[in-house]
Amino acid sequence: MATEINLESLSNIILDLDAQIQQKGVMFVDTIEFIKSKKNAATVSWTKIDVKRVREWLLSDEEERPVEKIPAGELDVLLFRFILTLRNIKTNKELEPKTIQGMIASK
Q: Measured between alpha carbons, how far is 102 from 107 in angstroms, rounded to an integer?
């Protein structure tokens, strides 16, 4: 029962916020620009580096399709294999678990 009350309360809060946004005349474009302005530049940079590593690994594994064209089930298997092969580019040593967790979370 407590979960239902919390979900109902959350739903009401979201509806109230939506009504406030509409009253203020905030446009979708404004929202997107606000979100972009809050992104951490370092996070964006690391995400781009991580995506590049995945693409390079896919090519080395003879997978030439763009990531967005690979069916989800296949992509899951490929990403799992990629994670198992991750190594530091400079030292060729295994990456720390927190580094790998960060890469996974940035996707």
A: 9
**Which pair of structure tokens corresponds to residue 8?**
């109902």
Decide which of 88 and 3 is more confident.
88
pLDDT tens profile 3-26 = 556 788 888 888 888 787 777 776
The SS3 call for residue 1 is coil
* Residue 10, strand partner residues: none
Residue positions counted in the chain: 107
Q: DSSP string of 2-60?
A: HHHHHHHHHHHHHHHHHHHHHHHT--HHHHHHHHHHHS-HHHHHHHHHHHHHHHHHHHH
Kindly state the DSSP code that residue 95 receives in the 8-state scheme: P
3-state secondary structure of 46: helix
Residues in a beta bridge with 87: 94
